[in-house]
Design a protein that fits this description.
With 821 residues, the chain is an alpha+beta fold. It is 25% helix and 27% strand. The chain is built from 21 helices and 41 strands. Strands 29-32-33-37-36-35-34 form a 7-stranded mixed sheet, with helices on both faces. Strand 7 and strand 8 form a beta hairpin. It starts with a strand and ends with a strand.
């Protein structure tokens, strides 16, 4: 939002410059994102001065140039060669001195000391066009009076201004105007600088009705409009606005239309209350009705665009037809034109939710909707109406021809907040003097109704729609007191947070890096999807779609159930631009509605949100080269990638069951495979070739292979323990082989466990390298095992090795009856 520094000073007479004001506002929560210097004339006529032509003679080497000497208030006059036909001795002129910049549209050149036809020239005598005052370039501009040496910008009373670009948050509806920002500034100066500055609010005490005609009848739907005020002004003269008004509006980026419309915009920027002026002669039946119109009704707005209404907008209508998208945009046929003689002036309070939904639906963002959807002040409509009416009488003439008709069925009262000082002190972290708190609140126009040592009761004005709780009131106090005035504690309190295992973010990053290393590109798509994708869809029925209540368009009207369709959109987009060899992946959440779940259940019971990983390959896997043609993408390459992902996550592939397409139930794949966890029986991945019908829908003619991995199901079956790493021992390992005769039903696993238990420090591994079952004893078999011994701290000697080996043999003999062969 743009705030003019010069305009702001009309209400807050401060000596602080624009940068200081910006700093004060930023530290109070109104962040000034930038400062922009604006000038009524580009360059501000810097280094332009008033001069007097002392002498003027013809140039000896030219038939149209003149050599002049010009007094510019310096010790010596300037020698200037001038080509204007009307230059003459004794004239008062404007001189661009050396270093001045002369603008011609967006281009400019700098005045330098030079020679023209052999004669020195130390400046330029300017025409009106060179001064950017008009397009007249027939000759130099001759002034009636002026003192040589006077700065041109002072002579022409040029005004420089600085625009404060405020990043207004949605909760600061009270700061959508110059007076609103000024109120904050006054409170800040009083609190932080001990400067007593009064906020100058224009008076409307002189407002009066000139003749009491019959007022316009007003009827409102309270669900659309909480208050509607209006009056009529007769015999106005609609014309161009005066210079000061056009400059004020231009400074904040508003284009001048005519004096009446400009006044409504001026009051909007002054007090924050949107107004609208109707041509009274076009108000059929002398009647205003705020209501909805049937869905599909066509309405032409001021920009000439015909719009179809959705049946939920607050429409301002006359007795026959709609005239205005209430709180958003005026109609083409009811606005004020140069032929208008009588006007009806509207000042209303529209429902913020209705305005926001209507503005979003029609793709409109206006100065009025910007304020209404944040919550305008319902109790300022009459003041704004009087202020605008008095300005219209001043600038457009006419007579206020009826009393204000104010329809306000249910008065919106000020919020009453009981603020405990103990709560305030604990929340802020500092004890602020109680009288200081009272002064801050009163500076913000918040009435302190009652206060004692323990608490205060405050009545919050209706322009502060976000201040409804004690914590909101504490925020108001703190931002004016100054966040930088809160002492930083010397002790730091912290708590240790437990990061659950496995670390999902780390795992996702690992797989992202793996896929990128294998030539895949990551895509990121909108979670909103096209509802038409899920109609007549057996895999993802529309009944399970999570629908958007106030969808921006039919293309973004449901939450996605799968990453399939957004991925195909990406492929189609690239293939249409001759990028046909693609390998992409995406991590994203998918959403489904649990059909039949009662509305009184918690959100996570009525809806399901799961993270998935999608993989797409199409075209060739690499570019052709001198070594041969590149391999085309196929199902087996995709399967290999999927299994590599699982193995990279240390998932045991033996625990995964593979089910072919005919049994896995997906219709969008012409051939494929489902991977099912044998323990949980849950599908963790589906992969295969996208069928022809679906490819045709996206205008894709080449083969596309797709894999959908249920990321959350995969995370659940991952090993919980992280891989442990250790340094490789510097000492050699020793291998001992044993041939053991054991019972035929003895497993190697039991032998392995017995051997390792004999010495867990030295025995590193036990492996089976031979099994022989054709012994003379029918109930016996022979195992040949290899034992690796190693000490991490020293080299093993023969005595230690023999001791461990003997212990292993004896233990096996005692526990399972094994005999050394």
């Amino acid at each position: 939002m743009k705030i003019s520094y010069n305009w702001l000073k009309q209400y807050v007479p401060t000596t602080h410059n624009a940068q200081e004001v910006a700093d004060l506002l930023t530290f109070s929560g109104l962040e000034v994102e930038g400062l922009e210097k604006i000038e009524s004339i580009k360059g501000g006529l810097e280094k332009y001065v008033i001069g007097k032509v002392l002498t003027c003679v013809a140039h000896p080497n030219s038939d149209h140039l003149h050599i002049t000497t010009v007094d510019v208030g310096q010790a010596e006059p300037l020698h200037i060669v001038c080509g204007a036909p009307n230059v003459a001795e004794g004239q008062i002129v404007v001189v661009a001195t050396i270093g001045a910049k002369v603008y011609d549209g967006d281009e400019c050149f700098e005045i330098k000391k030079s020679k023209l036809r052999g004669e020195p020239s130390e400046g330029m005598i300017c025409s009106e066009k060179e001064l950017q005052l008009s397009d007249n370039h027939d000759g130099i501009m001759v002034l009636n009076d002026g003192v040589p040496g006077t700065l041109a910008k002072e002579y022409f009373h040029l005004e420089e201004d600085t625009i404060l670009e405020i990043g207004l948050t949605a909760n600061r509806s009270d700061a959508t105007s110059h007076i609103g920002v000024g109120r904050d500034l006054v409170a800040i100066l009083a609190s932080q600088r001990n400067e007593k500055v009064d906020l100058v609010v224009p008076s409307v005490d002189e407002f009066k009705v000139d003749n009491n005609s019959k007022p316009v009848t007003i009827n409102i739907d309270e669900s659309l409009c909480g208050r509607y005020s209006g009056l009529t002004i007769s015999n106005v003269e609609v014309k161009e606005s005066p210079k000061w008004l056009k400059e004020r509006l231009d400074a904040v980026g508003i284009r001048s239309i005519n004096n009446v419309v400009d006044i409504t915009n001026f009051v909007l920027m002054e007090v924050g209350q949107p107004l609208h002026a109707f041509d009274l002669d076009k108000v059929e039946g002398n009647e205003i009705n705020v209501k909805t119109m049937p869905e599909g009704t066509k309405f032409v707005t001021l920009d000439g665009v015909e719009r179809k209404l959705n049946g939920k907008e607050a429409m301002v209508c006359n007795a026959k037809e709609p005239m205005c998208l209430g709180g958003i945009f005026g109609g083409e046929d009811s606005g004020v034109t140069m032929q208008t003689k009588n006007i009806f002036l509207e000042s209303a309070y529209f429902n913020p939710v209705v305005i926001r939904k209507g503005a979003k639906y029609h793709g409109l963002s206006t100065d009025a909707s910007f304020r209404y959807e944040r919550g305008a002040d319902p109790n300022i409509t009459v003041y704004a109406l009087k202020r605008a009416a008095m300005l219209i009488k001043e600038l457009a003439g006419g007579q206020i021809s009826c009393e204000i008709n104010d329809v306000y069925p249910k008065v919106i009262e000020r919020a009453c907040i009981d603020l405990s000082f103990d709560y305030l002190d604990s929340l802020i972290g500092k004890v602020i003097e109680r009288n200081k708190i009272k002064d801050i609140l009163e500076g913000l126009n918040i009435e302190v109704k009652d206060m004692d040592d323990k608490h205060l009761i405050a009545l919050v004005p209706t322009n502060k729609v976000d201040v409804t709780r004690p914590c909101d009131l504490a925020e108001e106090i703190l931002r004016i007191y100054g966040y930088n005035n809160i002492d930083f504690p010397y002790n730091v309190k912290s708590s240790l947070s437990y990061n659950p295992k496995p670390d999902k973010e780390k795992i996702q990053y690992t797989i992202t890096s793996f896929l990128a290393a294998n030539g895949f590109n990551e895509t990121m798509n909108n979670s909103l999807s096209v509802g038409a994708y899920y109609e007549n869809n057996e895999d993802y029925p529309i009944e399970k779609s999570v629908k958007i209540l106030n969808a921006l368009s039919s293309d973004l009207n449901v939450m996605r159930q799968t990453l399939l369709y957004s991925g195909l959109e990406v492929l189609a987009f690239n293939i249409n631009r001759n990028v046909s060899n693609l390998k992409t992946f995406e991590f994203g959440n998918c959403y489904q509605k649990n059909i039949g779940a009662p509305d009184n259940l918690k959100v996570d019971k009525r809806f399901k949100e799961e993270k998935h990983l999608s993989l797409f390959i199409t075209g060739k896997l690499s570019n052709d080269s001198w070594q041969g043609k590149a391999q085309n993408a196929d199902f087996f390459y995709l399967k290999n990638i999927v299994f590599n992902v699982l193995q990279r996550l240390r998932i045991n592939i033996n625990n995964i069951e593979q089910i072919e397409q005919k049994d896995c139930g997906t219709k969008y794949l012409s051939q494929g495979l489902s991977l099912v966890n044998k323990e949980s029986k849950k599908v963790i991945a589906v992969l295969g070739s996208v069928n022809a019908d679906l490819k045709k829908r996206f205008d894709i003619k080449q083969d596309v292979f797709y894999a959908d991995l249920n990321w959350e199901a995969i995370i659940k079956i991952m090993p919980k323990k992280e891989v442990q790493y250790a340094n490789i021992s510097k000492f050699p390992a020793v291998k001992r082989d044993l041939a053991l005769v054991v019972d035929k039903d003895t497993s190697f696993a039991s032998i392995e466990q017995i051997v390792k238990d004999c010495d867990k420090k030295l025995i590193k591994s036990v492996t089976l390298f031979d099994e022989y079952t054709k012994l003379q004893e029918a109930d016996k078999k022979q195992y040949a095992i290899s034992i690796i011994l190693q000490d991490e701290e020293k080299t093993l000697n023969a005595k230690q090795i023999e001791a461990v080996t003997d212990k292993v043999v004896k233990t096996l003999e005692n526990k399972i009856g094994a005999k050394l062969r």
